[in-house]
Amino acid sequence: MLKGKKAVVTGGSRGIGRAIALKFAENGADLAIIATRESEAALETIKELTSYGITARLYVCDIKDADQVDSVAKEIIADFGAIDILVNNAGITRDNLLANFKTMDIDSVIDVNLKGCIYVTKAFIRNFVMHKKGSIINISSVVGLMGNKGQTNYAASKAGIVGFTKAVAREYGRKNIRCNAIAPGYITTKMTAMLSDAQTEEMKKMIPLGKLGSPEDVADLALFLGSEGSKYITGEVIKVDGGMYV
Fold first, then answer.
1. 18 carries a ligand binding annotation
2. Catalytic residue among 119, 154, 172, 186
3. Worst-scoring range by mean pLDDT, 39-43, 51-55, 179-183?
4. Any known ligand binding at 187?
5. In 3D, which of 41, 40, 32, 78 has the Cα closest to residue 59?
6. Matching CATH number, 6-240, of 3.40.50.720, 3.90.228.20, 3.40.50.620, 3.30.360.10
7. Integer CA distances (angstroms), 61 to 40, 166, 170, 177, in order
8. Cβ(131)–Cβ(80) under 8 Å?
9. pLDDT, tens digit, 9 for 90 and up, residues 156-183
10. pTM, to two decimals
11. 14 is in an annotated binding site
């Protein structure tokens, strides 16, 4: 579905980002993976991606630093040429009750999740305009749509991504550039793996399908949004949550 296309995935070395990168590679896309450091997990991901016979490279960048983002974007475009797909997946959590937040807990989540998404999109938007095409996929969250106790900072950052997605879709639609968001619900990642069995069962009770989703469930939707099969879809926020927030 993506043969010959070139994609950039932030936070692509683990979890949902890794699943999306692998799904793209399986479908023929060359990949530039942006990670905060050259970790063993990141290098292992690159190795697995190249096993599909595509080109995959790792780029180290702190996405909350606009200058670093601009620099790495230029490097990626020099290496890959025209970029077709951008997936803004990188994100962090710093959970607590609002009254107990330290300033750094608020700033770090907004800086990475929201400002990082904006910085990376801005760095690649001229590439898309120049080539008169592109699919931007932003990873938001159902928490950004419905809120969640103990995650006011995270909810604000993910809700911001929703507004940003719709604004980009309106601003660049006439340039044949699409921008959509995916809002995952409870997905089985290292973070949810730390929950107790009792907590997991309580989560399942909130979900009509009665189970947690997998990173691959999100990756399947990202594949569709990156492909020509979604060429008339833009400005949408699509939930992957088993019906949790209907």
1. no
2. 154
3. 39-43
4. yes
5. 32
6. 3.40.50.720
7. 16, 26, 28, 25
8. no
9. 999 999 999 999 999 999 999 999 999 9
10. 0.95
11. yes
